[in-house]
Amino acid sequence: MTTTLHGLPAQSPASVPPDERAAAGLSVWPASARLTSHGDVAVGGVPLVEAAERFGTPVYLLDEGEVRERCRTYLRSFPDTDVVYAAKAFLCRALLHWVREEGLGLDVCSAGELESAVTAGFPPDRIVLHGNAKSPHDLEAALRLGVGRIVIDSAWEIARLSALIPDGARQKVLVRVVPGVSAGGHAAIRTGTDDQKFGLSINDGSAAHAVARILDQPRLELVGLHCHIGSQITTVKPYLTALRRVVGLLAQIRNQHGTALPELDLGGGHAVAHRPGEAALDIPTLGARIRRELAANCAAAGIPVPRLTVEPGRALVGPAGVALYRVLAVKRTGDRTFVAVDGGMSDNPRPALYGVRYAPRLVGRRSTAGPCTTTVVGRHCEAGDVLAADVTMPGDIRPGDLVAVPVAGAYHLSMASSYNAVGRPPVVAVTDGRARLLVRRESLADINGRDIGL
Fold first, then answer.
1. Where does the pLDDT of residue 349 fall: very low under 50, low under 70, confident under 90, or very high at 90 and above?
2. If we measure between CA atoms, which residue out of 445, 329, 345 comes closest to residue 398?
3. What is the pTM of this model?
4. Among all residues, which ones are annotated catalytic?
5. Which residues contact 224 (CB under 8 A, 6 or more apart)?
């Protein structure tokens, strides 16, 4: 479904200067975002009020131009590198088409994500399969579909995967190693230390032992190492520390086994800002520093420079998304003001899971009322159903108003649920003044259709 929404000419992201967007309070919005004359905001040339009227609320809007430009930024920042989109952030057929057209590969974590990608036409040889506990079905699907790389995450997977490979065939694999680097915006998304579930430790020798075992497996072709240290990392330093330790292991492998592994995957986890003033990782700087450090460390170790892979997810799609809600109620209790909207933790569980803080905004009308401190909450029967605590909104906010939440493109729909039998919202692509439905709203019939009997 493609709909042209009226009121604004199409405007390219580059035509809105960053300082102008910041002055308008739009610094963390898609680059195409701009204010209209009626107090509304347009994204991709589409006024948010008209999008809400056309598609209902809650609804996710995804700026196609923003996604594509972010893909291009990575390719410019990491030349001669495989840039692989981490599909767990958000996956749909249109997005797969965009990232494939822009020249990216794909990182998946299950047979479901893998089969969705392949049936949508994504080349399986450009797909990497992850997972700390891959099921037999995951591994069988990867082999059947011809996935390009499988990341070995535990010693158990070595024999399990090898046993599934037919005689005479070989599967390319990477070993996920843990470099002992603590980085990330929350304890639940720090994956570079030995006290979490992912990977094999460099420090205790588990990684080196797994490498030796794989090299003895004729059906497995070890092509490199993989390392992912966490998510929402705002500085370059942790990546450089991890890189040095992984290069040290590459040198150890060459010295002990006579094998120079040709690939190094440094994962993703690149931070985005959810609110004005927050830090985001500078991708061009990251690319330049990593490539320079990789070349220097390999030269010092006397090993060839492996081909680099990076796996951005949130950094590609998070800032391209905007969630739209309708206010259902405003309640003043003691010294607190609660603004309740028609979505909540079923379409964005991240504030409850990770304490993520957003910057919601009234859109669709101008307000002359003074500001007030509010807590934007959802409609679900949980006291923890909070979308944004202690945020400034106009003092006259009222039922029927529209509230927009930027940086909603990653880990919203992919982690959404049908809690309280509230269907998951639709996803609408916006670009050049046009809007088209990518993922339809989940209906009660969809939910009830899974309940097949007493």
1. very high
2. 329
3. 0.92
4. 381
5. 174, 175, 261, 262, 263, 264, 265, 306, 307
